[in-house]
Design brief:
With 403 residues, this protein is of the alpha/beta class. It folds into 2 domains: 3-45 and 294-401, Alpha-Beta Complex (Aspartate Aminotransferase, domain 1), CATH 3.90.1150; 68-291, Aspartate Aminotransferase, domain 2, CATH 3.40.640. 42% of the residues lie in helices and 13% in strands. The chain has helices at residues 18-23, 46-57, 62-65, 75-87, 102-114, 129-136, 153-160, 184-197, 220-228, 259-272, 278-288, 292-317, 343-353, 383-401; strands at 32-33, 97-100, 120-123, 141-144, 165-171, 200-204, 236-241, 253-256, 323-324, 332-336, 356-357, 359-360, 373-377. It has a 7-stranded mixed sheet, with helices on both faces. A 4-stranded antiparallel sheet has the order 9-10-13-12. The longest helix has 26 residues, at 292-317. The model has no long low-confidence stretch (mean pLDDT 95). The structure holds 4'-deoxy-4'-aminopyridoxal-5'-phosphate. Pfam families: Aminotran_1_2.
Length: 403
């Protein structure tokens, strides 16, 4: 008997990434790792969560917090999100919001909602690895989304035949993995393309609140609402998350979109996990209604200083020919090495000789290209670790570049 022979065809697209397996070995204390992508636990508002959990469980509230609840999500939390979306230029109602178990679940459900095998998803080259992981289960083809590029709507449509383009997925602010932010013009261009192709736009706003400098740019959904005057006429589906601001472990994210999309996703949610953990939603709502802005300021202050430290260290230690992005927020800097260099091989070298780690960039490309790229995380390591780790990385790259 071989049960794997019985697995559905969709499973063949779901592979453990070799890099992730390798990165699991990084727990040794003397390794400096820029490979993570997680918030600094020192910034979790633990006191506020303790009080919020106590409130949600006390005074008879357990009858609500420990009980099954609505698939759409906890209403006070959805209402708080309505207020936040309004600040971003997206007037909407609670009926436009679905609470998900992290924004990752939203990506899975959106793959399930839109993709039949052979349909095309437009994604960046590179893009968020977890989005590819979520979509792969629905057996799509991928094409490269290049906002402002010179490909026509007809060209994108022809490349998708005999299937069709169902959506363009993109991370708009300080993207994972590149740290790059889409300009307002590029956001408008994505909308124009989606109009031309008559496809959806999945706007991944996981890092939206983590801006350290520069002026904020309206979400694609806000630009579309400005065009159409009504969120229920919009093709953009906005995915938000509390993971980068409050806690990834509580697994709370949301979708803000036209009711026609939200209502269908509610059915997927009912079939998938009934609803997001009630207690966690109540705790997040309580903490979000507290000193959230003050908390965000603290978070931004610390991450900004780490970002600055990393950019300064790169300037000091990188050999000629190496380039990197200068993100206005988020958690990542993206490094491009001279052509022909291989990030995966360099990682082996870096671990062995200098005990420094990063994520080789190739895994973020749907077409398997991008071997000469790396992703560096600056939200987890301390400033001292950043200085020392980038110096080590500089030595590894200098040694690899000198013949
Ligand atoms: N989108 C992006 C771009 C991310 O980087 C992440 C987390 N790494 C997610 C979505 C998923 O986050 P969560 O499910 O914790 O909300």
């Amino acid at each position: 008997m071989s049960l794997p022979n019985l697995f559905a065809s969709r499973i063949s697209g779901m592979k453990a990434s070799e890099i992730r397996e390798l990165l699991k070995l990084l727990d040794q204390p003397d390794i400096i790792s820029f490979a993570g992508g997680i918030p600094d636990p020192a910034l979790f508002p633990v006191d506020a969560f303790q009080a919020a959990m106590a409130k949600a469980l006390g005074g008879g509230n357990h009858a609500l917090s420990l009980q099954y609840s609505a698939s759409e999500g906890y209403l006070p939390l959805r209402q708080w999100i309505v207020g936040e979306m309004a600040k971003l230029g997206v007037p909407c109602e609670a009926g436009n919001i679905l609470i998900t178990s992290g924004s990752q679940q939203a990506l899975d459900y959106l793959g399930k909602l839109f993709l039949s095998p052979g349909d095309t998803a437009l994604v960046g080259w590179p893009t968020y690895l977890g989005a590819l992981g979520a979509f792969n289960a629905y057996e799509p083809r991928y094409d490269r989304l290049q906002p402002g590029g010179n490909r026509s709507v007809q060209d994108y449509a022809a490349a998708a035949a005999p299937g069709r383009v169902k959506f363009a997925y993109l991370s708009v602010d300080f993207a994972n993995p590149t740290g790059v932010t889409l300009s307002q013009t590029e956001r408008e261009q994505v909308l124009d393309l989606a109009e031309g192709l008559d496809c959806a736009v999945i706007e991944d706003a996981a890092y939206q609140s983590l801006r350290y400098d520069g002026a904020s740019i309206p979400p694609i959904l806000a630009l579309e609402v400005a065009r159409k005057g009504d969120i229920n006429a919009c093709r953009t589906i906005y995915c938000g998350s509390f993971s980068k601001t409050l806690s990834p472990g509580l697994r709370i994210g949301w979708v803000c979109a036209a009711k026609s999309v939200v209502n269908q996703m509610v059915l997927l949610k009912q079939a998938g996990d009934l609803h997001t953990a009630t207690l966690n939603q109540m705790a997040i709502a309580e903490v979000a209604n507290g000193d959230f802005d003050e908390h965000l300021e603290k978070l931004r202050g610390l991450y900004r200083s780490r970002r600055d430290r990393m950019l300064a260290a790169l300037e000091t230690h990188m050999p000629a020919g190496v380039e990197w992005t200068k993100p206005e927020g988020g958690m990542f800097v993206w490094v491009t090495l001279p052509k022909g260099m291989d990030g995966a091989k360099l990682l082996e070298q870096a671990l062995k000789t200098e005990k420094v780690a990063f994520v080789p960039g190739g895994a973020f490309f749907a077409d398997g290209s991008g071997a000469n790229t790396l992703r560096l995380n600056f939200s987890s390591p301390s400033q001292q670790a950043i200085d020392e780790g980038i110096a080590r990385l500089g030595r590894v790259l200098t040694a690899a570049l000198v013949p």
